[in-house]
Specification:
The structure is a single chain. By secondary structure, the chain is an alpha/beta fold. A 7-stranded parallel β-sheet has the order 3-2-1-4-5-6-10, with helices on both faces. Helix 6 crosses helix 10 and helix 9 packs across helix 10. It is globular, with a radius of gyration of 22 Å.
Length: 403
Amino acid sequence: MADTPAPEKAVSSEAPHDERPAVLIIGGLGYVGRFLALYLHRNQLACSIRLVDKVLPQLARLAPEFSEACSSSNFMQADASKEQSLAKIFTPPPSCPRREYTYVFNCGGETRYSQEDAVYKARSVELTVNLARECARRKTPALVEFSTGQIYKSPNSSTVKSGGCKEDATTKPWTKLAKYKLMAEEELEKLRKTEGLRYTVLRLGHVYGPYDVGFLARGLCLAKVYERKREEMKWLWTKDLRVNTVHVEDVCTAAFLAAKWCASIPPDQEPGLDKRTFNIVDQGDTSQGTLATIFSQIFDLRTGFQGSLISSFARFNMESVVDDVNEEILGPWAELLRENGITDSGPLSPFMEKELLRDCNLCLDAGKAGRLLGWKAGEGREVLSVEGVRRILDSYRGMGWWP
């Protein structure tokens, strides 16, 4: 809940000062951004919330519960990757009791896989650098950058068994998106050294929750197609491949706690990228086996894993394998939508990206966030569960997305 405002002194006729932070959310209508706005709004954690996005709210497929938190009065349409837009973006509205923003959350950047290098450079690295320079110039107490656990070298079985990658683990990004996220992180640390930037980074597992259109959503769409085809749904590699997860609401609590922590740490303390970074995943250590078990309980289908021969073939022929899978599943998915009267398919699709099918563990140790931030996944969200996935499907049905 929000901090209680300080009581008015007897000698003053002014209203009590609102101690809550003024919050700026870049990419405020993206998946994490909208949930962060909702979290702050519902819990009255900010004196002012400004959402900045290139997309208008009317085009962002917002569910009804976001109507107040993401209202037009809180929204500004702007491109934060453009330096000329920053003065307008960083100027709080007249209703804000503060002259500068206290916390800036960068939920922006390119989230699609397999894009051109120039796209990631412009939409991720340059965006982060522009925001960071402006935050440093304005002495913003906290800039929170959202990144990915895919920046780490895929851990071996020993590291997986011991709990996963810690924040100081060797980095070797295994997706193009992660490669540029790491570049952005490194730029933040340079600006801390040279310009006194106060920042922190959250490296996330696969984020899921209501209205999810990411990694888990692809799997659910695939399962629906295989259920229709009455075929076994088989994963590449093994059931032990880690695909660690975190609920979007827990990402929001972690982000706010990280911002408070960052604001309390001078830029000359906790030097080094690894010291200002937190891994954020639930306690479930989600694996492909976890997903297979959950899907088989929700859908009328059998699940399994490809043998070593097929997996080895896929390792050296991934592009053709992915093309074949997509050709096989996109037609039946379109038929499912048509048969159920869904003319606007929405953001869901079973289309698979080859980068997401690599034999790489996404396995993170979030112990540091627990120790320093007091963070943990919320009750009922400690692990990815059948009930949690059913709630996601219910959210799709409520939006008219699910066949």
